[in-house]
């Protein structure tokens, strides 16, 4: 179990398969009605984060993002705030996981079959959980974009990427899995969090970005930034 402090309010915890087994936790548990187990698990994470990286918050959470990793690992990003209670956060997270349980469709309408299976404890049904195949990250500078692309260029060449710049100077990198392997796409997204903040990839934001922001590079951003 490793921790990284993203900013004053946000941390990321990366768990390997052995970490998950040691804590007796899995994706299926986040579907479970046993909120006490999840609550205890997250309290353990917060305590470990306090000990290892000095992270302090008021005990409540604004948001929690889960990203399945290769080899049955899991990345959990937690943002602290006084404004939201644990039950609200867990409820929203369960809704997100249920949405992921539906096969994701690419822009051409095809189904992405890179899935994992988890069991819904409420119904006993086995759900197919499909990680999102499109992510957007906001970078504070072009230099940060270049540094990120340099870090992932060795394995992320088959992904579809576009780069936009907003009026406030933020650079938005859109990453789609494309022909790349699922594990490499997840690794590239995890690496992006080291240089940028993830933006909710909703249709409203995406359409606004594509229509109103300056398109710096329409494709092959990771490949072409080596010439900047």
UniProtKB/TrEMBL annotation:
InterPro entries: MecA_C_sf, Neg-reg_MecA
Entry superkingdom: Bacteria
Pfam families noted in UniProt: MecA
PANTHER family: ADAPTER PROTEIN MECA, ADAPTER PROTEIN MECA 1
Entry similarity comment: Belongs to the MecA family.
Protein name: Adaptor protein MecA
């Amino acid at each position: 179990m490793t921790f990284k402090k993203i900013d004053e309010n946000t941390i990321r915890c990366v768990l390997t398969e052995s970490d998950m087994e040691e804590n007796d936790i899995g994706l299926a548990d986040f579907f479970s009605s046993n909120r006490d187990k999840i609550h205890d698990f997250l309290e353990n994470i917060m305590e470990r984060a306090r000990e290892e990286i000095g992270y302090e918050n008021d005990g409540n959470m604004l948001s929690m993002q889960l990203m399945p990793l290769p080899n049955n690992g899991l990345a959990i990003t937690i943002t602290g705030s006084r404004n939201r209670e644990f039950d609200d956060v867990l409820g929203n997270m369960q809704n997100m996981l249920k949405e992921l349980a539906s096969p994701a469709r690419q822009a051409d309408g095809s189904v992405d079959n890179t899935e994992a299976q988890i069991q819904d404890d409420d119904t006993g049904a086995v759900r197919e959980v499909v990680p999102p195949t499109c992510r957007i990250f906001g970078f504070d500078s072009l230099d940060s974009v270049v540094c990120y692309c340099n870090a992932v260029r060795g394995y992320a060449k088959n992904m579809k990427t576009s780069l936009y710049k907003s009026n406030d100077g933020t650079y938005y990198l859109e990453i789609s899995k494309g022909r790349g392997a699922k594990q490499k796409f997840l690794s590239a997204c995890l690496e992006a969090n080291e240089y940028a903040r993830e933006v909710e990839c909703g249709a409203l934001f995406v359409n606004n970005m594509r229509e109103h922001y300056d398109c710096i590079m329409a494709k092959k951003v990771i490949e072409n930034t080596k010439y900047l």
